[in-house]
Amino acid sequence: MSGTAGRPGVARREQNDRLLRAELLRTIYFEHLISLARPAGSPDRSALPIAGDDEAAKKSVTALLDRLGYDTVDAGTTNES
Description:
The chain is an alpha+beta fold.
């Protein structure tokens, strides 16, 4: 995978040659996934950072995290994060 050396958690998706982060769930301790999840609109709902070069993929991840009980903070592209 050229261009990803030294960048753990980055994988190349063959069809479109886009980089996607596979580190999403590395930002939260596994036991907190259940214990910190909150309904949308809750004042104490946690937010997890996301980064990526593909806006459609970021929207999909945002929707997934919303279903899991988390908001997101967009950290920009993979080069910016």
